[in-house]
Amino acid sequence: MTSRLRSAAPATAVTAGFLAVLIGVTSSVAIVATAAQAAGATPKQLTSWMLALGVGMGVTCLGLSLRYKAPVITAWSTPGAALLATGLHGVSMAQAIGAFLFSAVLIVLSGVTGWFARVMDRIPVSLASALLAGVLVQFGTGLFTKMQESLVVVLPMFAVYLLGRRWLPRYAVIAALVVGVAVSAAQGALSLRGLHLEIAEPVFVRPEFSWQVLVGVGLPLYVVTMASQNLPGVAVLRNAGYRTPISPLLTWTGVVNALLAPFGCFGLNLAAITAAICTGEEAHRDPRKRYAAGVWAGVFYLAVGLFGGVVGWLLSTMPTALVMGIAGLGLLGTIGGSLNSALSDERTREAAVITFLATASGMTLFGIGSTFWGLLAGVLAAAVLNWRRRAATPPPPQKQDASQQRQEEEAEEAEEARQGEAVLVPANGAEGERPHRQETAARDTAG
Question: In which region does residue 264 sit, left (phi positive, over 0), alpha (psi from -120 to 50) or beta (all else)?
Answer without folding.
Answer: left
